[in-house]
Amino acid sequence: MRRKSLSAFLLLLLGITLLTSISGCLSRNRPTFAPPTIELTSPASGSTDLATPVKLEWEAAPGAQTNAGKRDGVTITEYEVNYKKTDGTGTTQTATTVDKSYSLTDLAYGTQYTWWVVAKQSDGQRKKSDEWVFSTQAAQYDTPEIALKSPEDGAPNQSTTLTLTWEATPGAQTNAGKRDGVSIKEYEVYHKKTGDPDPTEPATTVDQFHNLTNLAYETEYLWWVVAKQSDGKRATSTEWTFTTQAVQFDAPEIALKSPWNGAGDQPTTVTLTWEATEGKQTYVGERATAIEGYLVYFGVNGQKYGDPVRVTTTQQQRPGLAYGTTYKWQVVALQSDGKRATSTEWTFTTLAPVYGPPTITLISPENGATNLATPVRLEWEAAPGAQTNAGERAVSLSYQVFHRKQGEEYPNAPAETTYKFLA
Predict the structure, then answer these.
(1) For 37-136, which CATH class?
(2) CATH homologous superfamily of domain 145-244?
(3) 314-366 residue pLDDT tens
(4) pLDDT digits (tens, 9 = 90+) for 363-405
């Protein structure tokens, strides 16, 4: 029994030894390979101003067999292409290919990238290339386009507060692979009176319009706009003109003051007075007009006016008027824009003349004269009473002659006898 157990053990040990020997022989006959080799070739590291898309190229070879007796070798089954921005933005992008080149089509303009390739061998081994860098060219664009819209070129009669408008578009990209484009970041708006020097400090805006205020009336202006693109390019519009409207005002207002309408007992030298204001402007803007003068119409009531007298103040003196006469008067205000306003018509009456009593002195016969022959000629001197209110004399004399006997009273009425006398 003990001999059978020993025989079984020896048989097992012999089997194990035989299997180990066979396995060793098999191992010595299996081929082994080095990892693949890979070298980047294009674009050269540090290349700049590359047009997009960028074609990456490299050279690679499978790893050589490392044990004797070369048999069927390994192959490179795939390449893993990696690239990313060097500024730290974004993530690593990975693509695979079986070729030794790969085109990158989604690159940003004006950006530096790093790139590398990993060769994958059929036996599972991998090899990473060196990392190279390149930079893409900046995006190239045409200049922007700009066209003025309103007011139209040569437009007349424009308000002194108006809005300039225009249209503009960024320039089209001129190099391949259009992506994020440029934009118009700002507009410079120029305007000036025709004939003035160009402005040195234009208005700026990001909108496609600009408001102008406080323009001069009835003036021609020149305007243009410069579009500034984000890549630094600029485009200047054509120059257009417009003309502002003439200043417009209501008619002036005028009101007579003195003498009052219908006033009586006025002196024969009167001062006519009135008040007037310029017409209010009928649209926005500062006043630019004035009352330049007045036409004063004056005459006797019931008669036609003669030619007016032009004055620049709000009063006029009228001397030498007739007493006890009704006069009429009216004033026209003349505004600098040609408009005028006519006052209502007023009247006044001058006072009647007032005089002192006349003076009289007897001349002949002398007082107390005797032995006078009849008929007796009586003589005296007289003068009208002086006027007691201002103005020219407007009176005359008539006479009543009284006589009585010595010692008698003068009669209440003059004698009916006709006498000859010297006036």
Answers:
(1) mainly beta
(2) Immunoglobulins (2.60.40.10)
(3) 999 999 899 989 999 999 999 887 888 999 999 999 988 887 888 899 999 99
(4) 999 998 888 888 989 899 998 888 777 654 444 556 677 777 7
Buried b (16+ CB within 10 A) or exposed e, 107-129: bebebebebbbbbbbebebebeb
Beta strands in 109-217 (DSSP E): 112-121, 126-128, 132-136, 145-150, 155-158, 162-169, 184-193, 203-205, 209-212
Distance CA 275, CA 11 (A): 148
- Angle at alpha carbon of residue 97, lines to 91 and 98, rounded to 5°: 155
Domain range list for the chain: 1-26, 37-136, 145-244, 253-350, 353-423
CATH topology of domain 253-350: Immunoglobulin-like (2.60.40)
Cα gap 18→299, rounded to integer Å: 158
Its pTM surpasses 0.70: no
CA 175 vs. chain centroid, Å, equals 40
Q: Report d(CA 244, CA 220) in Å as an integer.
A: 7
H helix intervals, 104-190: none
